[in-house]
UniProtKB/TrEMBL annotation:
It comes from the Bacteria. This is Glycosyl transferase family 1 domain-containing protein. GO terms for molecular function: glycosyltransferase activity. Residues 5-101 form the Glycosyl transferase family domain. Pfam families: Glycos_transf_1. PANTHER family: GLYCOSYLTRANSFERASE (PTHR12526:SF630). It comes from Streptococcus thermophilus.
Amino acid sequence: MLKSLSVKINWYGWQEKPWDVLPYIDVFLFTSTFEAFGLVLVEAISRNIPIVSTDLLEIRDFLKEGINGEVAPADQVEIFKQKVLKVLKYDEETRSNIYKSNTSVIIENIRNFIQENIHD
């Protein structure tokens, strides 16, 4: 199964202009085992790209499993692979709901940040 999955993957690597590549991405893979939060996650969310991520505490604030992506344990490659395949099979309705979900997640996180850090 992993071999057949690799046929479907285009590895873009480092891009000088990543925004030019984002429209062609079906799923964003965040495989970090230590980076709790990366700006690249916000970029993927802002472009409504489904995400498969390792299970890092901070990612749970942005990634709602089954709604705008999937989460897998960092040390479980097979589970991660299954989550990627699941996202690739999202139907059109699920993919269109990602926009609504991401907008809600972003608004909720901004509201929480303001309440925790600015609001008296």
